[in-house]
Amino acid sequence: MTPKKMTLYGFNNLTKTLSFNIYDICYTRNARERKAYLDYVDEQYGSERLTQILVDVAKIIGAHVLNIAKQDYEPMGASVTVMISESKVDPKDVDPSCNEGTMPRKESVVGHLDKSHLTVHTYPESHPDNDVSTFRVDIDVSTCGEVSPLNALNFLIGSFDSDILVLDYRIRGFTRDLDGRKIFNDHPIASIRDFIDPAILERYTALDVNLSHANIFHTSMMIEKFVLSNYLFTVDPSRLTADETAAIRQRVNQEIVEIFYGMNIPKME
């Protein structure tokens, strides 16, 4: 049952921010494989694709796009920022390029809202001495008023291949009810996990750090099932020996665990 809406005095001044990192891991044995993987993710998640994802997020949370700024980087990576509004906007106040795809190609993408904003940045990463490459996506959905960024959480997770997710949700400021009483949170929440589809949660090991008294919530998620083909880009897994398969599994798992716990682990010989 949908909870009864809270009656407020004036504008809802609460700021709700959902921020998270998404990591995709790939085993890349040499420079050719690293380049092939990084070129692929850079092409798949360029500024045009990222822009569409953020525009879809705005629709899901019931917001209206005011402006979009986007940029593709050399040699790789992209950023998008979208400004959004909770209420419907007069067409004369909207940048006409937002809906017509005529924004000039720049080095980042940004979208703005009159009370809120959406941002996404991508970071493909590799090292010549490391046989694992990573693709990181940073996403921020910041809203004011009744718009809730948590409504778009499952869509955002599903828009990327994710081996690790690091999610933070924070509510800042306060609004008031009709009697002038301060309200520091206008919706119930005990954990970010409560807003994630159970079918998604089943695939991950999750760790929570929740400071409910401060309206700060953190959840880290690490993929549970290792499927070899998911981590090979140009290699046929059927052509690998048992020793090669075991070595790849160890290296990929080490990379995932290091990112999940935020610490380096000595390589096993």
What does this structure look like?
There is one protein chain. The chain has 269 residues and is of the alpha+beta class. The protein is built from six helices and eleven strands. The strands form two sheets. Strands 1, 2, 3, 4, 5, 6, 7, 10 and 11 form a nine-stranded antiparallel beta sheet that branches. Strand 8 and strand 9 form a beta hairpin. The chain is globular, with a radius of gyration of 21 Å.
Q: Number of helical segments?
A: 6
Overall helicity: 10-25%
> Overall 3D geometry?
globular
Radius of gyration: 21 Å
CATH class: Alpha Beta
| CATH architecture descriptor text | 4-Layer Sandwich
Mean pLDDT: 84
Biggest sheet record: 9 strands, antiparallel
Q: Provide the CATH topology.
A: S-adenosylmethionine decarboxylase
Distance N to C terminus = 56 Å
Number of strands: 11
How does the SSE layout of this entry go?
Blueprint: E1 15-27, H1 31-44, H2 47-60, E2 64-72, E3 78-85, H3 97-100, E4 107-112, E5 116-125, E6 132-144, H4 153-158, E7 164-172, E8 175-176, E9 182-183, H5 198-201, E10 204-211, E11 216-223, H6 242-261
Antiparallel strand pairs: 1-6, 1-7, 2-3, 2-4, 3-5, 4-5, 5-6, 7-11, 8-9, 10-11
